[in-house]
Fold:
Amino acid sequence: MKPEVLVMAASPSADVMAQLEQRFDCHHLWQQPREAQAAWLQNVAPGVRGVLTTGAIGINAALLAQLPKIEIVAVNGIGTDAVDLAATRARGIAVTNTPGVLTDDVADLALTLLLSAARRLPALDFYVRTGAWEAGKPVAPTRALRGKVCGVFGFGRIGQAIAARAQAFGMQVQYFQPRAIDGVTVPRAASLLALAQASDYLVVAAPGGAATQHAVNAEVLAALGPQGTLVNIARGSLVDEEALITALRGRTLGMAALDVFADEPRVPVALRELDNVVLTPHIGSLTVETRHAMGQLVVDNLSAHFSGKPLLTPVA
Structure:
């Protein structure tokens, strides 16, 4: 008998999906109409031993309570803030995620967003498409990156990869997170506020959760200032969205480039209407190569667990 696994979301990799079907008895929640999911889940829940979810979807205590045989939650993503870790710990349920394999693509997007904001690429694209260039309308100059300060909030794998890329563009880099990182040459600011005060570009790469909820608040945005740019590729919860909208509207913050939002996929109309914002739909890891690697790591963690082998990437 193959282990029964509840699949909360599909992988873009056809090979990963094929492996899941081959190795496990899969119950695909994502294939069920929303109005039918509760009744469907009642039928399959008693046999489920594993759950495949994503960082955005996670799993809450109520769903865990419906799964009497659950042994493992495999997260296709880095973030576990949407997973009720207190509930999993209380029941001895293993949790895994997919660190490392998405670092480069997420860091690449962070610099893409930073460059798009600095050089006003969306506005310039619009300028050409609408015939403004042909009509001889004036275009304002943008700003160079070299010599500017890139502050990185959160200095794990992704934060350090962002720093390396920013340095390659001739930027100075500082970072902040509560615990200093040993063995790095990048200077650490005394606080997030101090980092914002020192930065031309503030890139958010810290984990989500209660500890970082609205860490980037009105005071931090004001410190970044009217020439400053906020880039967020972490979690929408880290930024006070209302304060951000107010700062962008009032031009007390120069620009924002955002891949994540507080209530995805619902992005406030106020943000969408602003011309000093670059928006992407939470696609930091959305490349063919990385999404396959993430899905493969999920499959490998599930296989290791049900074979009695050590997990590849357990969450502490």
User: Anything to note?
Assistant: The longest strand covers residues 50-54. The chain has twelve helices and eleven strands.
